[in-house]
Amino acid sequence: MGRTLAEKVWEQHVVRRADGEPDLLYIDLHLIHEVTSPQAFDGLRMAGRTVRRPDLTIATEDHNVPTVLGPISDPVSRTQVETLRKNAAEFGIRLHPMGDAGQGVVHIIGPQFGLTQPGMTIVCGDSHTSTHGAFGAIAFGIGTSEVEHVLATQTLPAYRPKTMAIEVKGELPVGVTAKDLILAIIAKIGTGGGQGYIVEYRGEAVRKLSMEGRMTVCNMSIEAGARAGMIAPDETTFEYLRGRPHAPTGEAWDRAVEYWKTLRTDDDAEFDKVVEIDASALTPFVTWGTNPGQGAPLGSAVPSPEQFADPVERAAAERALEYMGLAAGTPLRDIQVDTVFVGSCTNGRIEDLRAAAEILRGRKVVTRTLIVPGSMGVKKAAEEEGLHEVFKAAGAEWREAGCSMCLGMNPDTLKPGERSASTSNRNFEGRQGKGGRTHLVSPQVAAATAVTGRLTAPADL
Amino acid sequence: MDAFTTHTGRAVPLRRSNVDTDQIIPAVWLKQVSRTGFEKGLFAAWREDPSFVLNDPAYEGASILVSGPDFGTGSSREHAVWALQQYGFRVVIASRFGDIFRNNSTKMGLLPVVLPEDVVERLQDAAEADPKTEITVDLMERQVRSGDLVASFEIDDYTRWRLMEGLDDIGLTLRHADAIEEYENGRQPWLPTTV
Questions:
Q1: A409 touches chain B (CB under 8 A)
Q2: Inter-chain residue contact B180 with A143, CB threshold 8 Å
Q3: Complex ipTM, two decimals?
């Protein structure tokens, strides 16, 4: 019987297999940031161990960094960033610190440098590592104990997850984006729907997505509970990679492409589970609740908890509406927001900024609007295209690279009771600041919302 | 990590689903570079509500958390496990767990126990009816027992053995250093390095 993409990549990385034990899996690339690594480096020092492959490891500063120029004012954040600098220096790990041209959100810079390639295994102490699966890599988030394990051994003991196919039939209608697609998928299968699985996104609509759109989709695999998301590499993937600093060149490129072309699920392979979704029926999608599965088409209304047959879902909806300060039946388009955030590892790439700029060009924002490039490289590219001038002319704030308002670890936060339309990945209670209320949206919906102050699709303008 | 064989303690019923790791330990607590002191941040936002179950003195000293489904979803932060352990929990029982949280727990010796939702609710009912109700979580027998309730749970042999022995994963892997080196010698030549 044939094998799935996930099975092929997994098998290629098994260092050791023994009955009754998890596989020992080799890790091709280990991404590091300041938040989940300090205790791992401490562990190494305490045990007298070293980093096995600093040459397969790269570090950046992203979660704590302010997105306005200047030093980190919070002393605790500053200590954490300084700790990463000391650890990187002590163990010989390449680091892109604040202010460096290569600095940025960890999941933006891997693909940008061409370090993320098809068929690799990639880990990071960050759940959104699933982003890199867009290249046909197995990429997943790990905790600090496993960060230490990878530093010491360049391997991880792991059982191979089950495989799930998400077949996206048809084409996305004009104005419907990769973000709308993944939000609709999560609403369909639920936040636990992917638990124990590696998801492969397949079908015509997925093939037509750009690499950046594919990264947006894979990025949020974890929000459906999946350990990883993958998309088989194709010409779109190869075109994106060609010429990037760490991509192979010359004869090595040809050999790599030849191998990468084998990285697709065989026609006779079987998945443990198959889910189908009709892309052609989708419209812009937003969340109304406090988990990423609580979403609905923008053209609909806040649901009533009574609509949920499952008592657990009903109770969750009741609690979510209370936290979000929303009444059932309110049209989603009537929801007023205080802040718009465009950025994060989900939607902080150049295409996302272009999409937002296209809508903001010649218009004015009526809310606080933060536009945060995912990396300094993205920032430079955007400025070369003049996008920053579009944002500034519209009254939006053009920031430095970082995780920014995706999570409450740096100065970009919501105040209690404030409501955002955000291109990030999590609408959990307090995620963007204690008491803050988050609606997850695409960059297009975010920009249109900034213009009206209410959740709005570009077509509504 | 501490070895885990069997544990008997009182339980806290947490009747919420999708308890994500941002709720277990809000991000502001993640700025610490040490491994200690996270008990203060456990459910920090929810604990501001006097009616939150952890604020009920009847549950003081409880060591088993019995939660609704999808416990530990979201962020990979192992700090969530540290916070639960440092607060005094040895076991979390739920019908579904986030994969990364579950993995992190077994690395640290916090036992995640998956039981069917109706059994979880019976345990919650019992702990609510009488907060002194004791639950025994027996890893050797793969069983949860409380009063006349006996429920089996699944855990793979390897993880169970590692938990019962309190073994350090890295030490186990380094026994296979030769296999790792051999694998490295055969890696595809075009694979990138960060240098």
A1: yes
A2: no
A3: 0.97
